[in-house]
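hey so u asked for the seq, here:
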Amino acid sequence: MHRSTDLPYADPDADWSLPGWLYTDAEYFELECARVIRPSWQIVCHESDLAEPGAWRTLSYLGEQLVAVRGGDGVIRGFHNVCRHRAMRLVEGASGCARKLVCPYHAWVYELDGRLTGVPMKRDYPALRLEENGLAAVEVETWRGFVFVRLEDDGGPSVAAMMAPYDEEVAPYRFEEMRRLSDVRERERRVNWKNVGDNYSDNLHIPVAHDGLTRLFGKSYAIEAAGWVDRMSGELVDRPSSDWWERFYQTHLPRVDHLPEANQRRWLYYKLWPNMAFDLYADQIDFMQWLPLTPTTSLLREMSFALPDERREMRLVRYANWRINRTVNAEDTWLIERVQEGMASSSYTAGPIGASEVCLRSFAAKIRERIPEARQHRAPPPGWSRRVRGV
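ran it, structure tokens below
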């Protein structure tokens, strides 16, 4: 099943995929990062990861170092993790807790709300105004307990607005009460970031390349595109799988009383524009984002959360879930690395998109809306991006 409730206008290139050069071209990559990634929301952590005043978590992408920190007033704020004096990184690592943010280079002191309050040898800086040199802020949004940041605001929708079509479906999972199961996992992949997302929302490869998911879902896998979110789902079949871990999961998945009956054995997948996704299971949820590094490499950032549940069968089922999806991830990695190689082939321009591939159509339309040059099946002559930017 496939359904689209996407953009209100007709895309003249709707029957074609994004062309291969968009997955390898350095000029295009820089423009795409500026117009697509910088204005987009990126997940940092869960509110519970910032439980006490001074708790902080970091996120790095596009050469920017960011930190989300809970202030003494309980408010979570986001800042560039950069001292205003000599650009030194203020906090090191993925997480920590501090009463104040003190630069390790020259000991400039910032409060948890970003104010600059301490400068050694302050008289040595006659032009310095403390009130004008606090930490550079970035926008923060908390949606259902999860903390997001974005570098720039281009008028795009909030996370809550993007997820609005599915808010009622998500609500019973009680995201706000969840806690981290494991720390952030990061894995570099030799693929353009779009190839990760394209594969995530691709419905046609499931019965071809994922034997395990096919055994689990049968023919129930369904997709739809709704504005800024792709939704995929599969219903666990009753027929016991031939795979031991899949059969264990089918057999021992315990009932979760807070979920509706229809969701007890449903796997849900949501992809948020442009590079984030989360998988909902009765036993846990997994977040993933794919951050661009270069035109042909990206960083996968993954984390898992769940409601506290000490039942032994729940712990074992979560392990079975991990075993199942470890195989799925390996299969997907094999696929997208080969697709990435094919994108560089002189034989490939743009491929046709089927009517059922509503999620790929939705994503491609948004890219072409932001970067009209993405409609060209071959790369323009070198220097084209400078003309587009008026340089």
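The radius of gyration is 23 Å. The mean pLDDT is 95.
lmk if thats what u needed
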